[in-house]
Specification:
single chain; Aminopeptidase; seven-stranded mixed β-sheet; alpha+beta; globular; Nonspecific Lipid-transfer Protein, Chain A
Length: 389
């Protein structure tokens, strides 16, 4: 088996692999071929001994927020194998090449949307539960009102105000992707009268304070309004979204609204009966550390604090070691650790998906000493993931 980065025509062959694996249709193969060969994404493939492409993985390149700073984030996507080559270990072989390459390439973390948590744990990934989805009738929001201006985005309209608003909002959330205009347009694109996708910028006077993007889903006996993307500024912006959604009581039977885990709708909503709201959580995101030292340098530490951490990692040898961590530096040290973690546990702890106390329920997390400092560093933190790859 040969594993390597793909190029030119091989990228189109890889697209065919994904179309087969994900039950997709290719309406215009020649156009798809032209698009594929021009791609610059990291596209990895595994070939059998006769040169047939068996499997592929795309490693997208992003910058994401982590404790108020941005870091290199690889986004794993298009993990797919032709049916006749499944159970050959081809995906495993790609990961075993891709992950060390990501370290050499300067990535700090890698993330993905899993089809199976157990499968990706084999490669050092661990779960991140970042959102809650609330389902309710529009009437639940009757105590909210938006009196500002709502601007419907149409193809060809500028997206600069949307991008700026999103990035201001997202900068407070770990793992949120830093968006440029092109990335924002991916969320906005579509024709509302054909795709039933609506994008509204909400303004207080001339100042944008929120936006909400939602899909109109046909459903009997009444349609569903499903929020796909949103951002806001402070309480005023958040309540603008609720007030705007309240307008649709005659249009929809149900609203599905997702929110970051740190904002618990049931704790703050002004409604007569909170029992009318259903809440669900999803473990649909996973993280893996790529560079433990850079990760430890990036996360917030109390001024003057110090702790010693020991990390183990099966795929990246450079992550195996013991380091003294202060608010100024991370240096290797020959000293008994205060905290021992695997690469999977450190990913959860560093992004704030779990607190130290929660992580201790894992078999791969052991606190030896210095608990007071460790509890200040490894706390639950706001997390947001609105970009798909």
């Amino acid at each position: 088996m040969e594993v390597r980065l793909l190029k030119d025509q091989e990228r189109f062959d890889a697209a065919l692999v994904s179309h087969v694996a994900f039950h997709m249709r290719m309406e215009d193969p020649e156009k798809a071929r032209e698009t594929a060969v021009k791609e610059t994404l990291q596209d990895w493939g595994a070939f059998d001994d006769d040169g047939t492409l068996m499997a592929r993985i795309i490693n997208n390149q992003y910058e994401c927020w982590l404790d108020g700073k941005t870091v290199r984030n690889g986004g794993i996507g298009a993990v797919s194998t032709l049916p006749e080559y499944r159970n050959t270990g081809s995906i495993r072989e790609i990961f075993q090449a891709l992950i060390p390459h990501a370290y050499a390439d300067g990535e700090v973390i890698s993330t993905l949307y899993p089809f199976s948590h157990a499968f990706y744990r084999k490669f050092g990934y661990e779960t991140v539960c970042w959102k809650n989805t609330y389902t309710f009738a529009p009437g639940v929001l009757k105590n909210y009102r938006f009196n500002g201006k709502a601007l419907l985005w149409k193809p060809g309209d500028p997206s600069k105000a949307w991008t700026a608003l999103y990035n201001r909002f997202a900068s407070a959330y770990n793992l949120a992707i830093l968006r440029n205009e092109e990335a924002m347009l991916e969320h906005l694109k579509g024709e509302y009268y054909k795709d039933r996708k609506f994008c509204y910028l909400l303004c207080d006077g001339s100042r944008p304070i929120a936006y909400v993007i939602f899909q109109d889903i046909r459903h009997d006996p009444a349609a569903i309004l499903e929020v796909k993307d949103l951002a806001w500024e402070g309480r005023t912006g958040f309540e603008a979204i609720l007030g705007f959604l309240a307008r649709f009581s005659a249009d929809y039977g149900t609203i599905r609204l997702f929110l970051p885990r740190d904002l618990e709708l049931l704790n703050l909503i002004r409604c007569p009966n909170a029992y009318e709201i259903e809440k669900t959580s999803a473990q649909n995101y996973m993280i893996r550390i790529i560079n433990a030292v850079k990760l430890l340098e990036t996360i917030c530490k109390p001024v003057g604090s110090r702790f010693v951490i020991q990390v183990t990692d099966d795929l990246i040898p450079q992550n195996n070691g013991t380091w003294a961590v202060t608010d100024q530096a991370v240096v290797p040290i020959d000293e008994a650790p205060d905290l021992t973690v695997s690469e999977r546990a450190l990913g959860q702890l560093a992004c704030g998906a779990v607190s130290l106390n929660e992580a201790e329920y894992r078999a791969d997390t052991v606190v030896h000493a210095n608990r007071e400092v460790l509890e200040q560093v490894f706390t639950r933190k706001p997390i947001l993931v609105e970009d798909h790859f």
